[in-house]
């Protein structure tokens, strides 16, 4: 039963002292609340004890004052309960000071009420943290001291407010002395216990800090700035510098542990950051106790402790990384030297081989043009073919060497894609036919445009792909497809495909064939020959075109090699196709032309004025709308891509002014479902660039006449 009562009492006590604590508050705030609640409990116990004494001696006024004080303490406790701790503290301080002044006035100083000021001063140091709230403690102690002075010098020794016998003064004095002593002992014990807890906490924090310091993967040492000697270091630093204990490093000059080339560097770094909040990070070299060189990534941080300036140096050991780096540098240098030797060798050999080969090729060509016996023709053909094949192999090896060295650069010159691909197709068609194969070509008619690219390298890629297709195809067909996928006023996207019905390539070998000097297998090399450089060079050249050479192949059915490129269009190319001589006059037709490219404007203007058109020019969509507001027109030609306002936006504004006016898109763009998209936007038709003059003429005539009939 006794244990049960003790357990219940302890539970009630715990509930009381933890009142006002909620989640999210700091540890210091939690301690502050607990100490305040303990102070309230003790104050209430003192009040209750005093009430009992006063009622026993029939001092009801004093008892009423204690009840009132107890009520105010309960109110202060309630403020803490509703998370208004500061209001509760202020109320309790005012309450206790007023209580001591009033009780001393009612009973007189002989009753000894002022003795409670002694434990009260101790209670203040218990409730208010000296370390964190020293200013607040001074303020409260000052208020309490003033209250004490008022109490002693403002109250009489005895008072007749209530009847107190002479013998009762001794009892009251002894009671107040007893309560004061008990409270003083309690608060003294509480303060000693609190200090012990703080001391333990400080020791634990120090132990925790030392643990972090000594378990760090970085070697750390602290330097006295004044003497430039080592004040302390962690265990990792001892391991790093091969020191047996702290005595080996403590007090030694820091210069002893830096490598000779970095001592001055460290001194200049330390001076530059001293007295500032800056730190420094970088690589420095050190020497261990045994003379071993250590490379470290170092962080240098200055700081001040108790008016003494220190520097903290943290070292992350990167010696293995540096050694690997040195090894890589040596290997790189060897590789570069080997590459230079190889390049020089290939250059010399190519010169030495080209000279006799040119002679052989020239002589074979001369012999073929001279009179020769009919039986000699096969040998002469073999001689010519073999020498030309040898020259091609030399060129491939030199090209590959340039690509590998990063010295091959692409030219950028205007190239007509349709013309170039037609020539390549014409070049390979006889070879395909001679082998008994069918040759198909699908070259987009809309690719009669000039783009900026390297014609020689494009020719080389397509020639390599077609040569391989012919080489590895016994029967069936070869197909060259060149298709425009998308175009705008300044760019065009083109897809190139070479399709064959040859031997095909197994899936597991498809990546390998793009490697240097590699073919699908040994049998292929023996049967068909070749160096295995063609596809490797082609892949690298396509990569230089900002594309990827893609392979799809099935053994026994054939292969498809394709790549897609985007090139800039030559804006100064011919902007019309096949100018006709006899086109009828358009008889004063009023046309508004919006075109931002001056070359395109000049070409269109030339034809329109020649046909008798009354032309108004605008260099962007905004000016086109302004011009439309000021004049009357039979038809509008709008470029789709213009600054300030594009063609589609300008069309919307024009349609607001005249919904019936025929508007044609004048554009170099090309994409799927283009006509239906333009019709949805409000255009009635479009003129592609480069344009055919007869198309422009016929569409203007048709739409103007149709608008007039409507």
Q: How would you describe this structure to a colleague?
A:
The chain has 710 residues and is of the alpha/beta class. The chain folds into five domains: 2-200, no CATH class; 216-317, PAS domain (Beta-Lactamase); 324-405, Signal transduction histidine kinase, dimerisation/phosphotransfer (DHp) domain (Helix Hairpins, Orthogonal Bundle), CATH 1.10.287.130; 413-568, 2-Layer Sandwich (Heat Shock Protein 90); 590-709, Rossmann fold, CATH 3.40.50.2300. 54% of the residues lie in helices and 16% in strands. It is built from 20 helices and 17 strands. The protein has helices spanning 2-17, 27-56, 60-81, 85-107, 117-127, 134-154, 166-215, 235-240, 260-273, 319-369, 377-405, 417-434, 455-471, 522-528, 534-544, 598-610, 621-630, 647-657, 674-681, 693-709, and strands at residues 219-224, 229-233, 280-287, 293-305, 308-317, 413-416, 438-443, 450-453, 477-487, 491-500, 550-554, 558-568, 590-594, 614-618, 635-638, 663-667, 685-688. The strands form four sheets. It has a five-stranded antiparallel beta sheet with strand order 2-1-5-4-3. It has a five-stranded mixed beta sheet with strand order 7-9-10-12-11, covered by helices on one side. Strands 14-13-15-16-17 form a five-stranded parallel beta sheet, sandwiched between helices. Helix 3 packs antiparallel against helix 4 (85-107), helix 4 (85-107) runs parallel beside helix 6 (134-154) and helix 5 (117-127) packs antiparallel against helix 6 (134-154). The termini are far apart.
């Amino acid at each position: 039963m006794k244990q049960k009562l003790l357990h219940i009492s302890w539970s009630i006590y715990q509930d009381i002292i933890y009142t006002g604590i909620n989640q999210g508050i700091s540890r210091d705030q939690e301690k502050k609340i607990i100490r305040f609640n303990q102070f309230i409990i003790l104050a209430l116990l003192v009040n209750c004890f005093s009430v009992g004494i006063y009622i026993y001696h029939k001092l009801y006024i004093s008892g009423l004052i204690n009840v009132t004080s107890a009520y105010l303490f309960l109110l202060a406790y309630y403020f803490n309960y509703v998370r208004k701790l500061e209001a509760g503290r202020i109320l309790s301080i005012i309450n206790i000071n007023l209580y001591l002044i009033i009780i001393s006035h009612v009973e007189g100083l002989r009753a000894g009420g002022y003795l409670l000021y002694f434990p009260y001063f101790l209670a203040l140091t218990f409730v208010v943290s000296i370390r964190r709230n020293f200013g607040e403690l001074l303020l409260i102690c000052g208020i309490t001291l003033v209250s004490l002075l008022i109490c002693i010098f403002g109250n009489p020794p005895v008072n007749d407010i209530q009847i107190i016998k002479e013998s009762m003064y001794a009892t009251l004095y002894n009671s107040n002395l007893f309560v004061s002593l008990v409270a003083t002992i309690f608060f003294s014990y509480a303060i000693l216990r609190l200090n012990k807890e703080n001391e333990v906490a400080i020791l634990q924090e120090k132990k925790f800090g030392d643990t972090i310091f000594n378990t760090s993967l970085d070697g750390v040492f602290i330097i006295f700035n004044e003497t430039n000697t080592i004040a302390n270091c962690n265990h990792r630093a001892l391991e790093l510098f091969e020191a047996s204990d702290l005595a080996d490093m403590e007090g030694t000059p820091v210069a002893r542990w830096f490598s000779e080339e970095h001592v001055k560097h460290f001194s200049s770094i330390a001076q530059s950051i001293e007295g500032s909040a800056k730190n420094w990070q970088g690589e420095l070299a050190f020497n261990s106790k045994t003379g071993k060189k250590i490379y470290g990534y170092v962080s240098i941080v200055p700081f001040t402790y108790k008016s003494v300036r220190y520097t903290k140096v943290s070292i992350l050991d990167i010696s293995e990384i540096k050694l690997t780096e040195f090894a890589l540098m040596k290997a790189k240098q060897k590789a570069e030297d080997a590459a230079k030797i190889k390049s020089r060798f290939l250059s010399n050999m190519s010169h030495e081989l080209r000279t006799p080969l040119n002679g052989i090729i020239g002589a074979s060509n001369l012999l073929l043009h001279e009179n020769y016996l009919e039986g000699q023709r096969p040998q002469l053909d073999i001689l010519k073919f073999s020498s030309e094949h040898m020259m091609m192999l030399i060129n491939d090896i030199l090209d590959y060497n340039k690509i590998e060295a990063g010295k091959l650069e692409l030219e950028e010159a205007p190239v007509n894609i349709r013309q170039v691909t037609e020539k390549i197709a014409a070049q390979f068609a006889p070879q395909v036919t001679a082998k008994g194969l069918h040759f198909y070509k699908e070259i987009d008619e809309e690719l009669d445009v000039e783009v900026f690219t390297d014609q020689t390298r494009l020719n080389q890629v397509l020639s390599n792909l077609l040569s391989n297709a012919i080489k590895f195809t016994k029967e069936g067909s070869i197909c060259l497809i060149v298709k425009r996928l998308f175009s705008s006023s300044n760019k065009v996207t083109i897809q190139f495909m070479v399709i064959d019905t040859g031997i095909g390539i197994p899936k597991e070998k498809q990546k390998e064939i793009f490697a240097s000097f590699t073919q699908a297998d040994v049998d292929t090399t023996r049967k068909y020959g070749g160096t295995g450089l063609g596809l490797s060079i082609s892949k690298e050249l396509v990569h230089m075109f900002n594309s990827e050479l893609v392979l799809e192949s099935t053994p026994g059915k054939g292969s498809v090699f394709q790549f897609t490129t985007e090139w800039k269009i030559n804006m100064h190319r011919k902007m019309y196709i096949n100018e006709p001589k006899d086109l009828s006059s358009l008889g004063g037709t009023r046309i508004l032309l919006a075109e931002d490219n001056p070359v395109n404007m000049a070409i269109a203007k030339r034809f329109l004025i020649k046909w008798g058109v009354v032309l108004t020019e605008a260099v962007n969509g905004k000016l086109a709308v302004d011009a439309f507001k000021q004049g009357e027109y039979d038809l509008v030609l709008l470029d789709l891509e213009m600054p300030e306002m594009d063609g589609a936006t300008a069309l919307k504004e024009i349609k607001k002014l005249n919904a019936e006016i025929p508007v044609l898109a004048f554009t170099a763009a090309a994409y799927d479902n283009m006509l239906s998209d333009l019709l949805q936007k409000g255009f009635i038709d479009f003129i592609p660039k480069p344009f055919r003059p007869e198309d422009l003429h016929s569409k203007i005539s048709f739409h103007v006449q149709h608008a007039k009939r409507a």
